[in-house]
Amino acid sequence: MNDFLNVLQSLQLPFALLPMLYFTNKVEIMGSFVNGKIMCAFSWVVSIIILGINFFFVGQTLMSLPKNVALLLFISVLVLLYCVFVFLLFYYALEFKFLDRFNCLRNRSGEYEEHKDDDDVVADCGEHVDD
């Protein structure tokens, strides 16, 4: 049971580590406490090494499971979905732009809605309403 708890914690690590690195490297969020360029590079390199080691140990644990076709198929689908989600975390954290041609994956971190005039109110459903 302890081994499976360690695997579960290894799988949850990217969901805490990657957003933390993203936020601590943004000047808009951290202000004067933002990481410097050397610290930023060092933290990304160390985190990628740690995540790689964790993925290796998760793979070793999965290989030790009993060889059942249905179980292996189910685990393969879960691993694929997990890897896609972690890839998207890296994509947004490193602010890549190569998937911007897909509207649903576009990185909208710099797009903020402009303030409307007090006379014009936009309803939640998108209709224009005048006071």
From TrEMBL:
Cellular compartment(s): Membrane
GO-annotated cellular components: endosome membrane; plasma membrane
A Pfam family of this chain: Nramp
Any coiled-coil regions, as ranges: none
Membrane disposition: Multi-pass membrane protein
Keyword Transport recorded: yes
GO MF annotations, alphabetized: cadmium ion transmembrane transporter activity; iron ion transmembrane transporter activity; manganese ion transmembrane transporter activity
Keyword annotations of the record: Membrane, Transmembrane, Transmembrane helix, Transport
Listed name of the protein: Natural resistance-associated macrophage 2-like
Provenance organism: Paramuricea clavata (Red gorgonian)
